[in-house]
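@channel sequence for tomorrow's demo:
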Amino acid sequence: MITAVDVARDNDRFRVLGDGKGRTLISEGVANVRHAHRIINAVRGFNSFRARHADPEHRFGEVEVAGEKCCFTVDYYADATLQQSADPHKGPVYRVLSIMLASERKGS
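structure tokens (generated this afternoon):
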């Protein structure tokens, strides 16, 4: 059985090392700021899930770089077509790490 701890470990390995199947997407807003590389590095180094978020799978986080509030999410798909979501508790998934400005996030 795959647990939330297993999923969190796999999400962290993907976010930090790029280990596993998936891709990283950055939003237009992040792509257009001069310090985009610092935002990406802050997301890779993020480790405040327990302190700030009740997120046992480590799917969402917020960072601030040079006064710019940003966030990231990890979503799961069956494969690289991104047409069907998948459940990481049932087996291997294709991960998509999305990095965006907080102002670009839906619902913000």
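heads up for whoever presents: DSSP finds four helices and four strands in the chain.
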